[in-house]
């Protein structure tokens, strides 16, 4: 009996979320002759937007930049709810012929590169049978995001076993959780916490956001008034890029001002917060972080819904430490006790690059933390591999579109020149390196040692600047001193199989 031949693909995409679907659409349009498939570990597409089901889940970027460049966002709200975003992703996959390329329940666990063969051998475990499936591909494209899907981050709080109510993490929201008329405490101060507070306050008796330290909170209209005008007077194909660039430039301006004149931006944000809260509210305790703007992500609240809930008295914020959980709630470092029926630990994520798969190059395991990122999407010494990691200071998809377009340019360029291998080269080891992600958020700092590094200048530097990246990734040269293209030696013909 002859062994079954291993299936080979030109490009293998890992992950069927926002990035993976976008990558598939770009390949269909820009590299139409390439065979590809998308392996998805879960049973449904959508990634983040399918996994998270907590009340009020929404984008923390406007949809004109979180939407794909090639598919205009047509709904009214610029800050959209999770189900609308999920529908948009799935509609895109269906309309662009990508849905049929997805293989669900295939969790990729390992990828091994062979230079003589110029190909990856990829192992995936099937969810239905536990069977290991092997495929080969010429180019591996990781679109898994950068956090762990099966487990959110929860600190070790003392006394949790004593609490008589329910404790839930937003990443694992119980479908049947009933909090109507109940007292809810949300632990955290990031984007998830500021989303949960007004959403749960609509039905709960009262919601308290308990934070160890505040975040910067910025109110934006749920509908973009300029976008509404532009879309009324121009066709969608003309209006969408205009609005997209308007929002890109605005967010870039806020980021650059935050880095160059942090005290000015602090004052502007504080004034905006103070205007929306009741007279005499202690803004400096609850809304004045110890860090500068954009050292961590800004929290966006559409139409000031967080502040409206506080003004109505449906919600409140407590800034204090946690001493222990009690039978009835949480005892604070100050000695006060917060009574609760439900406690939500909106305490963050665990980072996990490439979905946790292991990587080997020519028989040697690769520790990605020892590599240096090339153009924010490839790693030194690792051939024919790209990953999508979105911006920290802007929409994820802005970078996702650029990376997907770059990969298409790259594989087309390799075909044109008969290259079979492309490998970023490590920069001079005497040059200084820095963490790959420059945020000071807890979820980043907890995992910083696991991530690749970045160098002092391009192409090893992440500038977190969309306009610069457009010039470099969309129009810049594919060949430079930091990357090597090569042809594999001819592979010997396989021996004839033994007779059965």
TrEMBL record:
Keyword NADP: yes
GO MF terms held by the record: flavin adenine dinucleotide binding; N,N-dimethylaniline monooxygenase activity; NADP binding
Keyword Nucleotidyltransferase: no
UniProt-listed Gene3D superfamilies: FAD/NAD(P)-binding domain (3.50.50.60)
SUPFAM superfamilies documented for this protein: FAD/NAD(P)-binding domain
UniProt cofactor(s): FAD
Keywords from the named record: FAD, Flavoprotein, Monooxygenase, NADP, Oxidoreductase
Top-level taxon of the source organism: Bacteria
Family: Belongs to the FAD-binding monooxygenase family.
Entry protein name: Flavin-binding family monooxygenase
